[in-house]
Amino acid sequence: MIRLYRELKKRGVLGLNARNARYIMPRNPRRYYPLVDNKILCKRRLVEHAVAVPELLGEVGSQYEAGHLANKLADLDEFVIKPASGSGGDGILVATGRYEDKVWHGSGGRLLALSDIEYHVSGILTGMYSLGGQIDTAMIESLVHTDQRFRQLAPEGVPDIRVILYRGIPVMAMTRLPTRRSSGKANLHQGAIGAGIDLVTGLTLRAVMSSRQVDLHPDTRHSVVDFQIPDWETLLTIATRCFEAIPLGYMGIDLVIDQDHGPLVLEMNARPGLAIQIANDDGLGCRLAAVDRLDNPESRSAQERLKIGLELARDDWGRK
Amino acid sequence: MTRLIHWLLLVVALISVGLSIAIYKHRVLGYPLQSEHIEPTWIVQARIQITPGSGPIKASLKLPTTTPGMGQLRENFISRGYGLTIQETGPAREAVWTVRRATQRQSLYYQAVFYRDAINQRFLPRPGFPEVPSLEEPFQTAMLATVEEVRRQSADIATFTTSLLTRINSTAPTEELALFLNSPDYRGQRVKIAQEILAGARIPSVQVNGFYLADASRTQPVRWLAVHNQREWLFFDPATGQMGLPENFLVWWVGAEPPIDVEGATLVDLVWSIRRNELAALDLAEQRSAAHATWLAPFSLFNLPVQAQSVYAVLMLVPVGAFIMILMRNVVGMPSFGTFMPVLIALAFRETGLLAGLVMFTIVVAVGLSLRFYLARLHLLLVPRLTAVLIIVVFLMVLLSLASHSLGWEVGLSVGLFPMVILAMIIERMSIVWEERGPSEALKEGLGSAVIAALAFSVMTLALVQHMAFVFPELMLVMLGLTILMGRYSGYRLSELLRFRVLARKSR
Ligand SMILES: Nc1ncnc2c1ncn2[C@@H]1O[C@H](COP(=O)(O)OP(=O)(O)O)[C@@H](O)[C@H]1O
Ligand SMILES: [Mg+2]
Hints:
The complex is a heterodimer. By secondary structure, chain A is of the alpha+beta class. Chain A folds into two domains: about 15-50 and about 145-320, 2-Layer Sandwich (D-amino Acid Aminotransferase, Chain A, domain 1); about 55-140, Dna Ligase, domain 1, CATH 3.30.1490. Helices cover about 30% and strands about 25% of the residues of chain A. Chain A is built from twelve helices and 14 strands. In chain A, strand 13 (about 250-260) and strand 14 form a beta hairpin. In chain A, helix 9 crosses helix 12 (about 300-315). Chain A is globular and about 60 Å long. By secondary structure, chain B is of the alpha+beta class. Chain B is built from 17 helices and 13 strands. Chain B has helices at about 1-25, 140-150, 155-170, 175-180, 190-200, 280-290, 305-315, 320-330, 340-350, 355-375, 380-405, 420-435, 440-460, 465-470, 475-485, 495-500, 500-505, and strands at about 40-50, 55-65, 70-80, 85-90, 90-100, 105-115, 205-210, 215-220, 220-230, 235, 250-255, 260-265, 265-280. In chain B, a hairpin with a 2-residue loop joins strand 4 (about 85-90) and strand 5 (about 90-100). Chain B is elongated. The mean pLDDT of chain B is about 85. The chains are: A alpha+beta, B alpha+beta. Bound molecules: adenosine-5'-diphosphate and magnesium ion.
């Protein structure tokens, strides 16, 4: 046990306590939390800073509106409804096409009637999915169609890419591939595959599913290792620019690649999970320490920060 | 850096203040560390019987003041129709009863309660050197010769005294000592002889009168000899020369005078009696701290009315449970519903017992959960749905009580003590986790909660913990210090060792 503890320490694996005490608490000022915890505010902020995001099609803020969604959804064939303050993929409802008037195709071949959607939205509003059960807003977002090149890797659902930004510098990344088990959502604890990404090349390193190492996608038997993430440079650039919009010292950026709009920022997280370390087979601790050795990296431009990050990655974070 | 120092100082300060108060209460005030601890106390009574003369009567009795090794709890004077004053002259104290006239034979009582108190070693102040007494010849020469002789064979004042007493008690005393022992003035008064000779060596000494504390309906005071060696008082048994007061010796008064003095009446009898009494150490400590008016006395929870006491007996356990919660979440990393929910469940277990509590908890949650899934189909809004779950929980609790009562299983009745709102919240939260993250996650969190609750319960019901929490509420400061200490624990959680163990295996 103690050996395991020392071994993890040596490899710079970051634990939850250390993440909270050493990075989140000192580096993430509370005043920015509402901006990331509320996806609508976050989206607005990103748009102001010219960062591409999936379009916001509508907001539902009151129970009355929730009971009269027909108008709002009349012209929409496909859309995503999610709680503005949701997390962990909870409460996300995806409509992929119209079946008939007031009925849509949902994920996993389910049909969604208008009344189902209205019930779901009213659940969101009462705070069923928000942190601490506060009253929430539901957002209607345009459906992202995954880029063709990416889709072969994850036929079901929308895979996303998570980049950890520390003091504005990208330090670690992974892609999360939905599986049938995760019912199309790209959240790891729901059964999605996480694959670490080499920051320099954009190639996937190794993949884990529920903390077990996997090489093949369980649904397609397609290899998920050594896969070239499309538009890698652009993805990293966009992610790095998010720091200008909301300067949280330690955050996770979720991106998707749309076939029409290219890379988009889906959301930002002020408390990104630690499973990314398993997917990358490396601890975050030493990478964060390498950034901390820099002098005031926050003051650099996005371009410079990206360059610094890639340089550090090439140097194996000062371990060479 | 300053934040770190600030934090450390706060932790150290809280823990040391809490611990010092607790240790002070234990060591000095005698608060016991165990609830069943029993301490003996002694009630010593003096009964004075007098036959009045024709005029006014005045009776004075020497009262205990400095009692090394013993502490006094309280005293009572029983003397109908007498005026009572307490005269204090220096360290000595006297009760003086007076009455203008009395007719019949009278009894006056004095009672005091004593307990053992090893910390209290206070005795008389440091005395001056006595003058060498001038006795009649041949006593003067005998005294000086004895001083010479004893001094030659002793190293210090303690050995001088011991050696002197051994000589006095010897079956074949020296000629000089035999002179004293056989004279009518000194016969049988070993302490008096010893004091004369000690004064001859300019060693200060006093006669000490007291009692061996043991049950006795009629006992006599015993004389001891106290000698000052310029640092402290040393006590000697004049019959053996042995040094050191025995544990159960109570010093009552000092000096060669009798303890009682009666004017205007004849003293018929003075009866000393001693009765041993067992007192729970806790009550003793309470009475002591009240009797000595320590600054801590007002802070004791025992000052509260009994009913409030039982409330606080439970409340003081909550921090203990919450601390276990911290350990389980931040050090072990066990998943649970809500932050303090398991602690509240653990409190409920106190009433039901662990096993019965777990069984009932599982039944209520399981049945409530299945009904909640049924409700989900009706598309109810959150608050009405929560209320519905709450009503179902209450209903289930009633049913469970009725069923177990008719089966003669009386523990089932205590299910009513479960915090039902909390149960309703658990059911609601569990059903959401169940739907969103799958049954395994929900069961994991449910099981985690039950385990933490069971653990918190086991610790909170330890007799030692309950006793300490209630008797030493200042230990809460220690809990606070430890909590703040834990607040900056940034090491791995046990569950993370498991989670990240794949990362440890191969080093790159
Ligand atoms: N607009 C969208 N189109 C398609 N899929 C989406 C969309 N929004 C979210 N998702 C899916 O849901 C997952 C979680 O969404 P996200 O916005 O990150 O919410 P959360 O904070 O709950 O993680 C994403 O990884 C993606 O797979
Ligand atoms: Mg996300």
